[in-house]
């Protein structure tokens, strides 16, 4: 069982990436080993998807040693706004 929670991941990512929005979901049925995250940050501006993912993975380097499944969607505020509009 992982010692990490969705709340912990949200707080760390928000702080380290100056994120405007972070949502982490524990999809592991309680073991804390599988998470999906959405992160919106200005720090992603000008970066390709792989660069964004590497940035997030470097922030969570220690945590990812214990988390066995991690998916992320990383957006700039402009990209996020577009995603939200498409949902309507």
Automatic annotation (TrEMBL):
GO BP term, example: protein maturation
Gene Ontology molecular function: 2 iron, 2 sulfur cluster binding
One Pfam family, short name: BolA
GO cellular component assignments: cytosol; nucleus
Domain of life: Eukaryota
PANTHER family reported in the protein's UniProt record: BOLA-LIKE PROTEIN 2 (PTHR12735:SF27), BOLA-LIKE PROTEIN-RELATED (PTHR12735)
Family of this protein: Belongs to the BolA/IbaG family.
Identification of the protein by name: BolA-like protein 2
Species whose genome carries this gene: Musca domestica (House fly)
């Amino acid at each position: 069982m992982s010692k990490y929670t969705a709340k912990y991941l949200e707080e760390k990512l928000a702080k380290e990436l100056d994120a405007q929005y972070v949502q982490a979901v524990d999809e592991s049925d309680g073991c804390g080993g599988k998470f999906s995250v959405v992160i919106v940050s200005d720090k992603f501006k000008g970066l390709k998807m792989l660069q964004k993912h590497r940035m997030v993975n470097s922030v969570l380097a220690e945590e990812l040693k214990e988390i066995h499944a991690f998916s992320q969607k990383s957006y700039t505020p402009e990209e996020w706004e577009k995603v939200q509009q498409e949902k309507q």
